């Protein structure tokens, strides 16, 4: 794709000039995505484990962007909050996330990030939980952005990493994040790995990405 075509595509996806279009298609697109996801989820077997799985208080749950395909639905069962980029082309995705049971705040590090984090902080202080893809929305992959640490420290809640394995899962070869898609009738293991959760409250280093599973 040439530079001019890339520029036109970016304008189409990100410009407010096209916000009307993305809002127009968001309801039917979100509905179709939701129907597909719900049908697929009914065919999979899921097991959940790890030291953080039984935690019941408010927390900031974090994962790599590649683990969003299943973790969106998993966190939706718990009605957790998610920050989604306000880019116009993600209007259908935000609608789909709400259909999964997630509660959505629009913002990203480059746009409305401060306002979105302030809203998430309020929800954490009200006893609710948040989950964030800490290398999103556009990478670099497997590099943690510090917003998750600052948010957890400000709310005095634990930071709990989450990942999953899919027995028949495949990493998308053409995506920057290695998007880990699961299959129909798959076996999925959701893991809440150990983490120095108390370190956040004590102000010590809390994010140890080398200990997080990447697949």
Topology of helices and strands:
Blueprint: H1 3-14, H2 19-41, E1 45-49, E2 60-63, H3 68-76, E3 81-84, H4 91-99, E4 103-106, H5 113-125, E5 130-133, H6 147-155, E6 159-161, E7 163-166, E8 170-171, E9 180-181, E10 187-191, H7 197-202
**CATH architecture classification name:** 3-Layer(aba) Sandwich
What's the helix-strand series? HHEEHEHEHEHEEEEEH
Arithmetic mean pLDDT = 84
Total DSSP helices: 7
Task: Supply the CATH superfamily name.
Answer: Tetrapyrrole methylase, N-terminal domain
- Rounded radius of gyration (Å): 17 Å
Number of strands: 10
CATH class categorisation? Alpha Beta
Largest sheet: 5 strands, parallel
CATH topology: Cobalt-precorrin-4 Transmethylase, domain 1
User: Helicity level, as a percent range?
Assistant: 25-40%
Structural class of the helices, strands and pairings? alpha/beta
Shape: globular
What separation lies between the terminal Cα atoms? 30 Å
Strand proportion, as a percent range, falls in: 15-25%
Order of the strands making up the biggest sheet = 4-3-5-2-6
Any idea how many domains? 1
Low-confidence stretches: 194-215
């Amino acid at each position: 794709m040439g530079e001019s075509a890339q520029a036109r595509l970016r304008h189409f996806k990100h410009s407010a000039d096209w916000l009307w279009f993305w809002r127009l298609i968001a309801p039917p697109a979100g509905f179709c995505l939701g129907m597909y996801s719900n049908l697929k989820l009914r065919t999979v077997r899921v097991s959940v484990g790890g030291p953080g799985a039984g935690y019941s208080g408010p927390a900031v749950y974090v994962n790599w962007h590649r683990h969003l395909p299943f973790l969106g639905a998993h966190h939706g069962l718990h009605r957790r909050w998610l920050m989604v980029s306000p880019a116009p082309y993600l209007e259908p995705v935000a609608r789909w996330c709400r259909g999964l049971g997630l509660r959505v705040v629009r913002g990203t590090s480059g746009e409305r990030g401060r306002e979105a984090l302030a809203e998430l902080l309020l929800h954490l202080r009200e006893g609710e939980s948040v989950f964030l893809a800490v290398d999103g929305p556009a990478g670099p992959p497997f590099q943690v952005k510090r917003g998750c640490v600052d948010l957890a420290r400000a709310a005095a809640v634990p930071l709990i990493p989450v990942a999953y394995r899919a027995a028949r899962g495949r990493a998308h070869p053409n995506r920057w994040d290695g998007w880990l898609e699961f299959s129909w009738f798959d076996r999925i293991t959701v893991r809440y790995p150990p983490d120095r959760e108390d370190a956040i409250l004590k102000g010590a280093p809390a994010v140890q990405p080398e200990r997080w599973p990447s697949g």
